[in-house]
C-alpha cells in the first residue's frame, strides 16, 4: 500500500521521535495496553504541531507538557498508515517487549534455579553452600544466568560441588580437566574465566573461609584444597636441606640436603612420589634472597628451610602440610608489610607453628624511614600489637633487610635431626627466643630478641 508506506515514512520524522519512544515504553511496560496516556515535556514547535495534528486540540506555544492518550495516537496512526500503533512501532524499531510476561518468566526461571540448588543434599548439610547460594541470589548472578539462558551452568556447578564433597578422605587428587569432563563432557569447562569455574571457586572459597582467589596461584591453591590438580608442574616450592623418606622425590631431597643444595619441588612430584618428612622443625621464609644466603653461608649445616617466594603455592601448602602432619613445627618469617603479614596469618592459621621474629618488638627494632606501608591493615593474631605498631610507624620492613638476624638464628639452631618439645634450651636454638606459637588465637606471650 503506497499510502501506508508514505504514512510510515512520515512518522520517522524527528517531531514524532520522543512521542513514539514514550508510546513504546508504555506499551512494553503494560503488555500492550492502549488504556494509558503519554506525554512529551518541553516540546519544540514541530513536536507541538505534530501532537495537535493527532489530538485535534490546539495547544499554545510554550506549553510545558503535552499529553496524548494511546488510543488517540493509535487511531491517528491507523488513519495515516492503515497499520495501527503497535505495527508502526514494530516497523520503526523492531518488536515490542512484553515486560510483564518477561518479568514473570524471569522470576519463574530464578525460582527454578533456587529450587535446583536447594534440592542438593549440601543445602541442608553445609553452611558454606547456603551462603554461596545466598550470595548468588543477592548479587544478581542467578538473574544473569536465567536471563542469558545459562541455567545449566548452575546445575553443573552443584554437581561439581557434590562430587568433591562426596569423595572419601583418602581418595587422592583428580586433574581439573578430568573433573570437568566427568561432570560436563568438556575438559575445559572449569578453566579460569569460564562461568562454571568462577561459580565453583566462589563456593570453594567460602568452604575454605578464604577470600575469592585473585591470582593463578590462589586459584591453584583453592583447587588443591579441594583435591583438584590444576597445573601441577607450574606450582613449585623452593627448599633447602629438607631430607625426606620415599623413593624418587624423597631420595632427591635427601641427596640435595646432603650437599646443602636448594631444590625446587613441584606439585606433580609431590603427587607422583609420596614422601614422609621427619624433622622437628622447619623454618619458612618469604624471600628467596634469605634462602640464597643460607645456602651460601651455612650450606649443609643450615636447618630445614622452605621459601614461599612470595604468595605460597599449592605445592608449598602440600609440602609443609606433610611436614606439620608428621610432627614438624613450622617457624615462619616474612615481610613486614600488609600483604606479608596476611601471608603469615594464612600460613600459621592453616598449618599452626610459630611466628619467627615477627612480633611488634621485632618490627620496631627493624623499622626505618623508607618504603611506606600501602593497603589496608591486616590482623596479626599471633601478636595483636604488631598491627598497631605497623600502623603507627607506617613503614615496610622487607625480609632481606633483617637477613643477618635470621641467618644468626639458623646458624645456631641444633634442630636438624633432634626433635624438641616446646622451646629448645638456651644455646640450642637462638631462634626460639624470637618466635611465638600460633594455633589460631592470639598469643599474648612476651617476645624477646
Structural description of this entry:
51% of the residues lie in helices and 10% in strands. The chain is an alpha/beta fold and 449 residues long. The protein has 3 domains: 2-97, no CATH class; 101-229, no CATH class; 237-438, Dna Topoisomerase Vi A Subunit, Chain: A, domain 2 (3-Layer(aba) Sandwich). It is elongated. Residues 417-434 and 439-449 have low confidence and may be disordered.
Note the beta-strand portion.
5-15%
Radius of gyration: 34 Å
CATH topology category name of the largest domain: Dna Topoisomerase Vi A Subunit, Chain: A, domain 2
How many DSSP helices? 21
Distance between the termini: 97 Å
| CATH A-level architecture of the largest domain | 3-Layer(aba) Sandwich
How is the main sheet built? Answer: 7 strands, mixed
Q: Helix share of residues?
A: 40-55%
**CATH classification class of the largest domain:** Alpha Beta
What is the tally of beta strands? 11
The total tally of domains equals 3
Flag low-confidence runs. Answer: 417-434, 439-449
Mean pLDDT over all positions: 87
Strand order of the largest sheet: 6-5-8-7-9-10-11
Structural class: alpha/beta
Shape: elongated
In short:
With 449 residues, this protein is of the alpha/beta class. Helix content is 51%, strand content 10%. Strand 7, helix 16 and strand 8 form a beta-alpha-beta unit.
Amino acid at each position: 500500500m503506497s499510502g501506508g508506506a508514505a504514512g510510515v515514512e512520515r512518522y520517522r520524522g524527528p517531531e514524532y521521535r520522543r512521542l513514539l519512544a514514550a508510546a513504546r515504553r508504555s506499551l512494553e511496560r503494560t503488555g500492550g495496553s492502549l488504556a494509558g496516556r503519554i506525554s512529551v515535556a518541553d516540546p519544540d514547535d514541530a513536536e507541538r504541531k505534530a501532537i495537535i495534528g493527532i489530538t485535534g486540540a490546539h495547544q499554545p506555544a510554550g506549553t510545558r507538557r503535552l499529553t496524548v492518550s494511546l488510543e488517540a495516537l493509535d487511531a491517528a496512526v491507523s488513519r495515516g498508515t492503515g497499520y495501527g500503533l503497535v505495527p508502526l512501532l514494530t516497523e520503526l524499531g523492531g518488536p515490542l517487549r512484553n515486560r510483564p510476561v518477561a518479568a514473570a518468566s524471569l522470576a519463574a526461571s530464578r525460582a527454578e534455579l533456587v529450587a535446583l540448588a536447594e534440592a542438593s543434599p549440601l543445602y541442608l548439610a553445609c553452611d558454606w553452600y547456603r551462603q554461596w547460594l545466598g550470595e548468588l541470589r543477592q548479587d544478581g548472578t542467578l538473574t544473569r544466568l536465567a536471563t542469558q539462558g545459562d541455567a545449566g551452568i548452575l546445575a553443573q556447578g552443584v554437581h561439581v560441588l557434590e562430587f568433591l564433597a562426596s569423595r572419601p578422605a583418602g581418595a587422592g587428587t583428580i586433574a581439573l580437566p578430568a573433573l570437568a569432563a566427568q561432570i560436563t563432557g568438556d575438559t575445559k569447562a572449569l578453566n579460569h574465566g569460564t562461568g562454571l569455574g568462577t561459580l565453583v571457586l566462589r563456593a570453594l572459597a567460602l568452604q575454605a573461609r578464604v577470600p575469592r582467589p585473585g591470582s593463578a596461584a590462589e586459584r591453584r591453591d583453592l583447587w588443591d584444597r579441594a583435591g583438584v590438580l590444576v597445573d601441577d608442574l607450574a606450582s613449585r616450592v623452593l627448599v633447602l636441606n629438607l631430607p625426606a623418606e620415599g623413593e624418587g622425590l624423597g631420595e632427591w631431597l635427601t641427596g640435595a640436603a646432603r650437599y646443602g643444595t636448594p631444590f625446587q619441588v613441584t606439585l606433580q612430584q609431590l603427587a607422583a612420589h609420596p614422601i614422609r618428612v621427619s624433622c622437628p622443625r622447619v623454618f619458612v621464609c618469604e624471600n628467596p634472597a634469605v634462602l640464597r644466603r643460607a645456602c651460601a653461608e651455612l650450606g649443609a649445616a643450615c636447618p630445614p628451610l622452605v621459601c614461599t617466594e612470595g604468595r605460597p603455592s599449592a605445592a608449598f601448602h602440600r609440602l609443609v602440610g606433610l611436614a606439620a602432619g608428621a610432627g614438624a613445627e613450622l617457624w615462619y618469617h616474612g615481610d613486614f608489610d600488609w600483604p606479608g603479614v596476611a601471608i603469615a596469618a594464612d600460613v600459621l592459621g592453616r598449618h599452626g607453628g610459630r611466628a619467627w621474629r615477627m612480633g611488634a618488638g621485632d618490627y620496631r627494632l627493624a623499622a626505618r624511614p623508607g618504603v611506606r606501608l600501602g593497603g589496608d591493615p591486616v590482623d596479626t593474631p599471633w601478636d595483636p600489637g604488631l598491627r598497631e605498631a605497623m600502623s603507627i610507624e607506617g613503614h615496610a620492613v622487607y625480609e632481606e633487610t633483617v637477613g643477618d638476624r635470621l641467618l644468626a638464628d639458623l646458624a645456631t639452631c641444633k634442630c636438624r635431626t633432634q626433635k624438641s618439645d616446646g622451646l629448645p634450651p638456651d644455646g640450642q636454638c637462638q631462634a626460639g627466643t624470637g618466635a611465638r606459637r600460633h594455633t589460631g588465637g592470639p598469643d599474648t606471650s612476651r617476645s624477646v630478641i
